[in-house]
Amino acid sequence: MPKEQLEDWFKENLASELALKPHQISLNSPIEDYRLDSLSSVSLSYSLEEFLGYEIEPTIFNEFETVNELIEWLLKKNN
């Protein structure tokens, strides 16, 4: 999967979950800046599972400092 596809997915889905516009999402900002609550984390992880085709734990958003770090991990996992 191309990195750009994952970047677009995160921008669109984070923005939707947080009632923002995709251009307001910075993939280099700390994930904690988005203040995802547990319901948002579960919702995003479920959507990400559907997108990627494998299980993603909701806690994944607590395991990485930025979305870009999470994307890099996902890319390595897919290879």
Itemize the secondary structure elements and their pairings:
Layout lengths: L2 H16 L19 H15 L14 H12 L1
Helix pairs in contact: 1-2, 1-3
Helix content: 40-55%
CATH domain class: Mainly Alpha
Extended strand count: 0
Strand percentage lies at: under 5%
End-to-end gap = 9 Å
Structural classification: mainly alpha
Radius of gyration: 11 Å
Which runs of at least 5 residues are low in confidence (pLDDT < 50)? none
Task: State the shape.
Answer: globular
Describe it.
- The structure is a single chain.
- The chain is mostly helical.
- It has one domain: Orthogonal Bundle (Non-ribosomal Peptide Synthetase Peptidyl Carrier Protein, Chain A).
- Helices cover 54% and strands 0% of the residues.
- The protein has 3 helices and no strands.
- Helix 1 (3-18) runs antiparallel to helix 2 and helix 1 crosses helix 3 (67-78).
- It is globular, with a radius of gyration of 11 Å.
- It starts with a helix and ends with a helix.
Keywords:
79 residues, mainly alpha, Non-ribosomal Peptide Synthetase Peptidyl Carrier Protein, Chain A, 3 helices, 0% strand
Give the structure's gist in a few sentences.
By secondary structure, this protein is mainly α. Helix content is 54%, strand content 0%.
